[in-house]
Amino acid sequence: MAKKVVATLQTAGKNYTKVIRMVKSPKTGAYSFKERVMHVEQVKDFLAKK
After folding, report:
1. In whole angstroms, what separates CA 21 from the centre of its chain?
2. pTM value?
3. 15: left (phi over 0), alpha (psi -120 to 50) or beta
């Protein structure tokens, strides 16, 4: 049963990607990372935001 579930997730997850963006804190100036898993079509919009 587990093998069938894993195979289903692998075929359905090809349209998704993990995006990591560095964000600078206005108070301290330190950088932090924001990570999201999103659909491939939304990546450019996410990276364009400030």
Report:
1. 9
2. 0.55
3. alpha
Q: Could you give the CA distance from residue 11 to residue 4 in angstroms, rounded to a whole number?
A: 11
| Distances in whole angstroms, Cα of residue 35 to Cα of each of 3, 4, 12, 19, 38 | 28, 28, 20, 6, 10
Q: What is the pLDDT of residues 6-39, one digit of tens each?
A: 555 555 557 888 888 888 999 999 999 989 888 8
Specify the residue for token string 């491939």: 40
Q: CB neighbours (10 Å) of residue 38?
A: 14
HEC readout, the chain: CHHHHHHHHHHHHHHEEEEEEEEECCCCCCEEEEEEEEEHHHHHHHHHCC
